[in-house]
Amino acid sequence: MKPAVFDYVRAANKREALQQLTEHGEQARIIAGGQSLMAVLNMRLAQPKVLIDINQASDLHYLKVENNCLKVGAAVRQVELLDRTSLVDEVPLLAQAMPWIGHFQTRNRGTVCGSVAHADPSAEIPLCLVTLGGTVVLESLKGKRREVPAAEFFQGVLTTEKRPDEMVVEVQFPLREADVIYRFHEVAMRHGDFALVALAACIRQGEVDLGVGGVADRPTLRRLPLGAELKDSLNTLAWSLGAQDDVHASAPYRRQLVRELGQQLIEDNDHARAS
Amino acid sequence: MHVRADQRFPIQIELNGRQREGLAEPRMQLCDFLRHELGTTGVHVGCEHGVCGACTVLVDGVASRSCLMLAVQAHERRIDTVESLSRDNIMNDLQQAFSRHHALQCGFCTAGILMSCVEFLERVPSPDETQVRDMLSGHLCRCTGYTGMVRAVLEVAQQRQETLVENNNDV
């Protein structure tokens, strides 16, 4: 299908984009890579009156390490993170997750912040951000710059804490901690498809922070004990996520994936190395 | 740059090495612009929501879905379509390998796949089968089962590497 009509504004910088947002509010949408939004527009699930393109906003195009975080500006494409050779040392969880995101053709254009703003419950970048305790930076022209913890930012399917006059200008991934093992794995119908279940783990001494994507309406993070209690706590976690049946997988299958994949990811070293 | 919804904007692009111009209203997808305004009907439009990959073109040398991009976004950019591959009606090595290995049947998906392969082989000159299959996972082909494509891409990669070595030896 073809999108409904809209005005197109190419913003030269962040300020111009925020001005447009202030002027048009809920009638406007920011477009960066467009790998999710264009599909939504083509299917007319969204019909904004104004589309604000930030691809040329050079002040939103930066990747930097600062205050123990990797800071990613709104115009940075996924392929740029994937090609960053130091990523595996800086944010190893993200380095493991990047190849699972869409396909090479969509990572070429899709942005990191765009995936966060879109808030698909099965998306990998939001899952990593929540699991690592990252931050989403929101800005508007009139209001204050807000730094929202990722766990509070995601509020449901395609629903976030962002107000209509705000935009996601940056996301911040905490750098790797010493003595933490990071692991990521997911199951999808085909490689690159939406995850049926995606798991991200930060394994510490005696406990694990396990993030689950693709099951609940948003990425969910739980702290679980390691050792004999792990199996039971994974089961409790699996039941707590409100898994739904859909055309791709049944709710019991999704729960089983959380239990089995979770245990493999956390305990099986060979498996983690292979993935 | 502000284009009103009812306005047709003169878009300038470098298409397959030539400077071209056409009109597009903001909502026009790049794939439709390339086909209907500029006549490069080698761009095939399949699903129109970024799943099938048939409309893949190179934007500034990077493989992208042209259904997930607006024509206005391509203003002053370089676009290459499948028409850029052959010269004087002779198919390039990749196209010939696709033909030789039966990597296509109906051919609908082929134009997009070829463009992905062009960028892929520049980024990964000596891929293994897993890498080729990973690249192809961004495309849907309902005829072939992909095996012929994998063979074709691997063969072209090897041939190009051999040519490279020969040329270096000549020097």
Automatic annotation (TrEMBL), chain A:
InterPro entries for this protein: CO_DH_flav_C, CO_DH_flav_C_dom_sf, Diverse_Substr_Oxidored, FAD-bd_PCMH, FAD-bd_PCMH-like_sf, FAD-bd_PCMH_sub1, FAD-bd_PCMH_sub2, Mopterin_DH_FAD-bd
SMART domains assigned to the protein according to its UniProt record, in alphabetical order: CO_deh_flav_C
Transmembrane portions of the chain: none
Pfam family, one: FAD_binding_5
One GO MF term attached to the UniProt entry: FAD binding
Keywords recorded for this protein, A-Z: FAD, Flavoprotein, Oxidoreductase
Tagged with keyword Oxidoreductase: yes
Domain FAD-binding PCMH-type: 1-178
Keyword Flavoprotein: yes
Protein name (Swiss-Prot/TrEMBL): FAD binding domain-containing protein
Organism this protein belongs to: Vreelandella maris
TrEMBL record, chain B:
InterPro entries xrefs: 2Fe-2S-bd, 2Fe-2S-bd_dom_sf, 2Fe-2S_ferredoxin-like_sf, 2Fe-2S_ferredoxin-type, 2Fe2S_fd_BS, Beta-grasp_dom_sf, Diverse_Oxidoreductases
All copies of domain 2Fe-2S ferredoxin-type, residue ranges: 9-85
SUPFAM superfamilies xref list: 2Fe-2S ferredoxin-like, CO dehydrogenase ISP C-domain like
UniProt GO MF annotations: 2 iron, 2 sulfur cluster binding; metal ion binding; oxidoreductase activity
Residues spanning the membrane: none
Entry keyword annotation includes Oxidoreductase: yes
Family matches, as Gene3D superfamilies: 3.10.20.30, [2Fe-2S]-binding domain (1.10.150.120)
Keywords in alphabetical order: 2Fe-2S, Iron, Iron-sulfur, Metal-binding, Oxidoreductase
PANTHER family: OXIDOREDUCTASE WITH IRON-SULFUR SUBUNIT
Protein name as annotated: (2Fe-2S)-binding protein
